[in-house]
Amino acid sequence: MPSTCTAPLPDLEQRPGRPALLPADPGGDAPAWVGERRHALRAAVTEHGSVLVRGLGLHDASGTAAVRDALGVPPMPERETFAARQAYGDGVLSATPWPPNQPMCMHHEQSYAQEFPGLMLFACLAAPDRGGATGVADAGAVLEALPAALTDRFEREGWLLTRSFNGEIGAGPAEAFGTGDRPAIEAYCRANAIRFHWSPEGELRTEQLRDAVRRHPADGRRSWFNQIAFLNEWTLAPEIREYLVEEYGPDGLPFNTRYGNGEPLTENVVRLINDVYEAHTVRTPWESGDLLIVDNIRSAHSREPYEGPRDVVVAPAAPVRTAGRSTTVEGTPS
């Protein structure tokens, strides 16, 4: 692979309602094609928030990892997951398991963590028969479109994420923290400003206070960077929310979000955030072999419902570490 990485990019195709599209002609060597253009390609992703590269012909996880490496960004191991993914090796994972008939709302990957991926690579190994597009939304434009009173409050207070590991829904502690050892989980929580509590039955509950607005390291532009709406109870399907509240109580949901001071969000606020996301969403139907590179700070991403088999793998990359908000981390000892 040439070390200069100065080959020019083809012209980006930009159409309303669709992410920037880059046609590729790698001649059977996708990593070499990407490696020769990696600086220009990463600059285009920073500028546009996401770039869909079409024509690479990706067909497996190892090829996806090779393209990520050619882009010159390190992989990032997943921590604090909500739904266990299948690991294919070398930092490539399955897409988050999610019912195909339900949309996955806009979010930034692991925005609740103190270390999160700066880039997300999505490779479509097999396109679905219908639907299933991965949408992206400009997080700076979303911030500007939301009511100033709402964003100002979240910028002052941050947002609070609560998790209850009840053993029935979502990832368990061992899947979320990479270990089932209680002292190791507690050490992780203390190191990452996560409050924790063990019930007498041994179930874990956590809380973490995070920033809702973040500046991009490249240019300082402010972005609405969080999962306030995505992980809130009002984004759940009504029948699922009713079941969970009845089963575990309003404070025992597997996950929920609040204002930074602990005050619950209303359904209207969550609906407003999701409506603004939808107004700023662009999407292109997947074609097998596509690669979508997303700047995880500049752009939120989502997934449409779909029909038929859909095989999209994910490679989180370019870890970003933040100090986070200053909080007192307390927990019940093991």
Outline of this structure?
This protein has about 325 residues and is α+β, with helices and mostly antiparallel strands. Helix content is about 25%, strand content about 25%.
Give a description of the structure.
Helix 1 runs parallel beside helix 3 (61-70). Strand 10 (195-198) and strand 11 (204-210) form a beta hairpin. This protein has a seven-stranded mixed β-sheet, covered by helices on one side. The mean pLDDT is 92. It is α+β, with helices and mostly antiparallel strands. It is built from nine helices and 19 strands. The protein has helices at 30-36, 38-48, 61-70, 139-145, 148-157, 173-177, 182-191, 238-248, 267-279, and strands spanning 20-23, 50-54, 87-89, 92-94, 104-107, 115-126, 130-131, 136-138, 159-165, 195-198, 204-210, 213-215, 222-224, 255-259, 281-282, 291-295, 299-303, 306-307, 311-321. The chain is globular.
Q: What's the overall geometry? A: globular
Mean pLDDT reading: 92
Order of helices and strands: EHHEHEEEEEEHHEHHEEEEHEHEEEEE
Task: Please bin the fraction of helical residues.
Answer: 25-40%
Spans of at least 5 consecutive residues with low confidence: none
User: Please, how many helices?
Assistant: 9
Strand content: 25-35%
Largest β-sheet summary: 7 strands, mixed
Number of strands: 19
Report the span from N to C terminus: 51 Å
Please state how the strands of the largest beta sheet are arranged side by side: 1-2-16-6-19-4-3
Class derived from helix and strand content: alpha+beta
Rg from C-alpha positions?
Answer: 20 Å
